[in-house]
Fold this protein.
Amino acid sequence: MQSGAPEAFGMMRDAANKFLPIAWAAMILIGISGAYLATDHWGIRPNIFFTDDGRFMQILRVKTFLFLFVVVLSLLHDFWLGPKIMYRLEQARASGEVLPQSLARKLVRMTAGINLLSAVTILVLAVYLIRP
């Protein structure tokens, strides 16, 4: 067993508890500001969003899909997989067992990585939206 393991679990839980409200508030603001910009600044309505085949609309649709994908993946990671794995790790640590290397634990890391890649892709697409 690692001597710093209990502190690491506590730090991970504290960081999640402090960061999650900030992260979710940011995602809500990003969603609201994106919808506002699309409707008021660019004048995009649902019928245009789903039917226009221009470059701008294609990029905006992909960006919107990725944003919704990030939200769903974040919900899965933050409120189901992450807490489930933290509970299992804390149970294993408290009972002195070897920490499990389960599929769910790998899935938590993978969802975080996919989320990061999706967020960076959203940023790249934002640059393409403003470039002619």
Remarks:
- Residues 55-95 form the longest helix (41 residues).
- Helices lie at 5-41, 46-51, 55-95, 103-130.
- Residues 5-130 form one domain.
- The chain has a mean pLDDT of 86.
